[in-house]
């Protein structure tokens, strides 16, 4: 006795492929047409498959150009960026950190050197955080450590303690070797190039780009309510955290 074909499948075949015909390129049997979005698209039956998952939306891309000792940079990273990152699902927000800011790169007798707005201590902090990112690789590993450094009493003296709390698997000795060697200089040179290539050129820090763009309006929105801005721009399903947010005004930035 022949197997019974579900009525839903028969209805689908009758509606989409009269005469048992199928869409060109569809090599799947009718019961599998709604098994995935790709299959449904190939067989031209998307509208007949109500339970298909929605395609994932692209994350909002946010880049922060900052200095390790700039008060406004530290406030934005600690009070706005880190809490927003904690509240939102990973696939919703992609963050790039570029510690350099208003520093100046110099070539002295064939060797690169850096002069920072808030002095040598800031240059050290910038390089430490760049080396931390290079060593840890994973954003979810190094961002809490950077948050710890920037929210503490000393950006440059609390690395060991912050690693013990947030990333004990990261070797502080390798970060120190990076800072003292050629790798740290190369990382800062890269950050200098990326910062100098900004269009429009940065005028202050923190300097924020959203989806590759910087405007006065985006900067103001990010500083006023970063969570609200990301929720507004994200095209996928909104999480509960996107119920709205307001924040106190941040200190003015560190101008060049």
Automatic annotation (TrEMBL):
It comes from the Eukaryota. Its EC number is 1.8.-.-. Keywords: Disulfide bond, Glycoprotein, Immunity, Lysosome, Oxidoreductase, Redox-active center, Secreted, Signal. It holds the Pfam family GILT. InterPro entries: Interferon-induced_GILT (IPR004911). GO terms for cellular component: extracellular region; lysosome. Its main location: secreted. The keyword Secreted applies. GO terms for biological process: immune system process. GO terms for molecular function: oxidoreductase activity, acting on a sulfur group of donors, disulfide as acceptor. It is found in: Secreted; Lysosome. It is an enzyme of class 1 (oxidoreductase). Residues 1-21 form the signal peptide. Lysosomal thiol reductase that can reduce protein disulfide bonds. May facilitate the complete unfolding of proteins destined for lysosomal degradation. Plays an important role in antigen processing. Facilitates the generation of MHC class II-restricted epitodes from disulfide bond-containing antigen by the endocytic reduction of disulfide bonds. Also facilitates MHC class I-restricted recognition of exogenous antigens containing disulfide bonds by CD8+ T-cells or crosspresentation. Belongs to the GILT family. Dimer; disulfide-linked. This is Gamma-interferon-inducible lysosomal thiol reductase. It comes from Catharus ustulatus.
